[in-house]
Amino acid sequence: MSTVMRTPDASGADSASSGATAASRVFDALKQDLIRGRFAAGQKLAIGSLKTHYRVGLSPLREALNRLAAYGLLEQVNQRGFRVPALRLDELDDIADLRSQLECKALTQALQHGDAEWESQLLAAHHRLRRADERPQEMEECEQAHLRFHRTLLAPCGSPWLLRFIEQLHDQFDRYRRLAPPDLEVREVLDRQHGELVQLAMARRVSQARALLDEHIDLSHGVARGACSAP
Amino acid sequence: MSTVMRTPDASGADSASSGATAASRVFDALKQDLIRGRFAAGQKLAIGSLKTHYRVGLSPLREALNRLAAYGLLEQVNQRGFRVPALRLDELDDIADLRSQLECKALTQALQHGDAEWESQLLAAHHRLRRADERPQEMEECEQAHLRFHRTLLAPCGSPWLLRFIEQLHDQFDRYRRLAPPDLEVREVLDRQHGELVQLAMARRVSQARALLDEHIDLSHGVARGACSAP
DNA sequence: TATAATGAAAAAATCGATTTTATGGCAATG
DNA sequence: CATTGCCATAAAATCGATTTTTTCATTATA
Hints:
The structure is a homodimer of 231-residue chains.
Chain A: E1 4-5, H1 22-35, H2 47-54, H3 58-71, E2 75-77, E3 82-83, H4 89-113, H5 116-134, H6 139-154, H7 160-179, H8 184-202, H9 206-224
Antiparallel strand pairs in A: 2-3
The structure holds a DNA duplex (30 and 30 nucleotides).
């Protein structure tokens, strides 16, 4: 069962499944590693090393790099390869501002269209998130659960392009957030907000939910700013 | 002078210039042909024919196709190649709605940040647009001028990611609009609105300008709907 | 000393051929 | 008659080698 990819991985599922090509596998792996900050910001990628590191040939690797550049997780300069984008405070502010704008819109629409089935899924996603948060040593587990929770929250908004952009911004944002020093106090507030979001969403309290999501993103934004050095 | 490409062609300029690679050239050509509707919607692309048509080898061609899929102008299914996305009314509505939302936001910010230099550029862009419109036989000329006008209008908004998404949506929207039967009456109104937009922008009348841009997009939307058949 | 030219080494991009996977017709089976 | 299995064909994906372009240390020049 292969996945239609008008966008890199529109389904949100990892292409680790059966019919995955080498290109899509290395795309997923590279994407994760970029978001997790495994490459230094601003660094130039040595294609030769990537080839050996990810155990793929040149062609699928280059195809993956091209996708990532089009997606915005890499910069491509014409005869001089690929590099990791720098982390810039002004860009983070831009990303966070747009996230607020788009996710609040999506939330409004999701509260209008979401049905009973969605409510169950949202509760389930929140439950998984809490469980994962109880074992913070499993970082990737937590991150996955967190991503899925936010996806589930906005999923029924009815606008594929809106969701696409939100996903893209989320990936960009996470590059910053994951590199920032963690703030356990803020972290607790953020966790609490997840539960409150579920309550407000189920009760269809649009404006309150919007305000809370806005605050949620803004708090995260404050933490993520710690990833930036100079400008 | 090569261009940084965190996105396909972030500068808006054609990569026909000096340091262009085969991949970026065929990317530009394919992108234009897709937007111009030279391929039937839903059609599967025969990579072999593309190779001969665009006179490039397999590797650069595949890299271009991968970029286009990540950009959303192609669909990619894992072991069965690339196809042109179908034209769907609900998707067009989605695109138009988002365009309104994002472009109005950008317009507001542009009116706040735009300086005198920008005003000159806007006047110039509008002048070129009018001149191009006088020779409607030069369709591509008109389209280019039109695109540049809208780019210039929003350019100083100060948000690279917002501009990126707007550009992407604009390309998607144009796929529909260019295939729709032209409506000369509406066309005249749209042309008039361009001039009015310039006036309102220069006078920094934010809310009036927003309302007009919204109407502008909505009118275009009505025309573009003519490109859709069934759903 | 600063600047420009040079050329070897490294990296990016591309090509041609091979391998892998899907597709569609046809026979075999229930 | 519908369904399944099999093969030949076609297409997609990948590999290995070649070509092109950049990089950078070195030398020549003003």
